[in-house]
Specification:
about 500 residues, four-stranded antiparallel beta sheet, 20 helices, about 15% strand, rod-shaped
Length: about 500
């Protein structure tokens, strides 16, 4: 039962004047107006469960100035609220409180005066009637005995036979949380892959907190912290509304059982609840038989084409994701439109990811790349694949000479990867003499880039002479590539032949 406080009596001590004055002031207020502790009706009950108590209170006017008589009234009978009231107003009637007891209540020390034969919790509840949480101690038993729902907020305490949570109570309780939403509302207003929903059935209200706004507090614990009832959760439903669901499903996961219990007492918080559900739902999607595709808050269902169409990345990255998913349908859940993120999701099967858009030979050539950057490996594999396709149509020269090796490497690099790959190859295969420097310059000019190696005036003139022979080689394939290579080698004057 919420509102039931764990309390440990700490002993008796002399009363400080300031504390005595505060308690006497509250005692005086109750002495003058007992309705301060009477709950307002919100349940349209046929007979108010508090009628008998307050009828008895109305009959003690003749002894209200007699502290001893009030204490005697606080020591007999079974009506704890009546006895706690008599004990509390006896303090004002006596005019002083020589000694106070202290109790540990929810981690804090609370001082109160012991009088009559009534439970300490009831005495504390009456003597702190203006504290929204502590005053519930006065009503826990009757709420349980009569099946009531008692809501405490601000200066009000409201009672209903059936669940009937006031809107003012909801806002008052929620404003105790660290959340601050637009217009002091109950909802953050954001769309997210996961949203915590706390539904108050009787009020028709919902608290909605997206994953990005969620904090490490239990909003449910705040919401029920000032309710006294047999079951404080009988008017509340908790869900996580999420995008992690198959096509045709509603994406609602209800929080129930032990998880709900832990959440209600603060052993789990808003972040825990959201992350737990989203993690489980993501696992269910990945292990399920139906492929579902999600980017951020957008659920594509099983529409892979629409999903692929929204990816952003290199052609190689998108091709790898597309070809793999066509051959190996599986759920992919990513937070952004980056194809590299989708690659990371399927990288557990990296060998087949590479093979799906290249070939088995290239995939096997990489070995174990499970812990390497997927996007980097895919782009390297793509270059290998292009190279494989181009180079497979060209002859392989056995025991080539020095100039032949340079010319063949430069030509195949330009054919496979254009200017960028040629530039990289020249940087790796640095020309070391006049012929190879002129050759590298001729290839650079053929693809429209500045020469990589520094050349003398004579070497540049030699490069201009070799340029038409280089262009001819770059346009050839098959056996003609061999013939044009021989022509270029003759033009260099190196004396080599293939």
């Amino acid at each position: 039962m919420a509102g039931k406080k764990r309390m440990k009596l700490r002993g008796i001590k002399q009363t400080p004047k300031r504390l005595e004055s505060e308690i006497l002031e509250k005692s005086k207020n109750l002495w003058e107006d007992p309705s301060l502790i009477r709950p307002k009706c919100a349940g349209k009950c046929f007979i108010c469960p508090f009628n008998k108590t307050f009828s008895a209170i109305s009959k003690i006017d003749k002894i209200k100035d007699n502290p001893d008589a009030l204490i005697r009234m606080a020591s007999k009978g079974s009506d704890d609220i009546f006895k706690a009231y008599c004990a509390t107003i006896s303090l004002y009637a006596a005019g002083s409180i020589p000694y106070l007891a202290t109790a540990k209540l929810a981690g804090e020390e609370v001082s109160f005066a012991q009088r009559g034969a009534v439970g300490n919790d009831k005495l504390i509840g009456a003597q702190y009637y203006n504290d929204p949480k502590i005053r519930l101690l006065l009503f826990n038993n009757i709420a349980k005995k009569k099946g009531l729902h008692i809501y405490s907020f601000g200066e009000d305490i409201v009672c209903a036979k059936k669940p009937n949570m006031p809107s003012d109570y909801i806002y008052d309780a929620f404003w105790d949380t660290p959340y601050e939403f637009t217009d002091d509302g109950l909802q953050c207003g954001h769309e997210s892959e996961g949203t915590l929903v706390i539904k108050i059935i009787s009020a028709g209200e919902e608290i909605r907190i997206c994953r990005n706004c969620a904090k490490e507090v239990s909003s449910l614990q705040f919401l029920i912290s000032r309710i006294a009832a047999v079951d404080v959760l009988d008017d509340i439903e908790v869900y996580v509304e999420h995008k992690y669901h198959n096509e045709g499903e509603n994406g609602l996961t209800r929080i129930e059982g032990e998880t709900l219990k832990k959440y209600s007492v603060g052993l789990m918080n808003d972040v825990n609840i959201l992350n737990s559900v989203l993690r489980d739902q993501m696992g269910n999607l990945k292990s399920g038989d139906v492929a579902t595709f999600i980017i951020g808050t957008k659920n594509y269902g099983s529409d892979m084409d629409a999903f692929i169409g929204d990816l952003r990345g290199t052609e190689a990255e998108i091709a790898a994701v597309t070809n793999y998913l066509k051959k190996n349908p599986c759920s992919v859940i990513i937070r952004t439109e980056k194809a590299s993120e989708a690659l990371s999701m399927i990288w557990g099967d990296y060998r087949n990811v590479i093979a799906s858009f290249t070939n088995d030979e290239i995939a096997d050539s990489f070995g174990d790349v499970s812990k390497m950057n997927p996007a980097q490996i895919i782009n390297e594999a793509n270059m290998k694949f292009i190279s494989y396709d181009v180079v497979s149509k060209l002859p392989v020269f056995k025991r080539p000479g020095v100039v032949t090796s340079y010319a063949d490497a430069y030509a195949k690099a330009a054919k496979v990867g254009g200017a960028e790959m040629l530039k990289e190859t020249i940087t790796k295969m640095i020309p070391k003499d006049t012929k190879t420097r002129a050759l590298s310059s001729a290839f650079a000019k053929a693809v429209g880039i500045e020469p990589v190696a520094k050349c003398t005036k004579e070497e540049n003139e030699f490069a201009d002479y070799l340029l038409p022979f280089v262009k001819q080689l770059l346009d050839s394939s098959g056996d003609k590539y061999r013939d044009d290579m021989n022509t270029l080698l003759t033009a260099t004057g190196c004396g080599e032949k293939v």
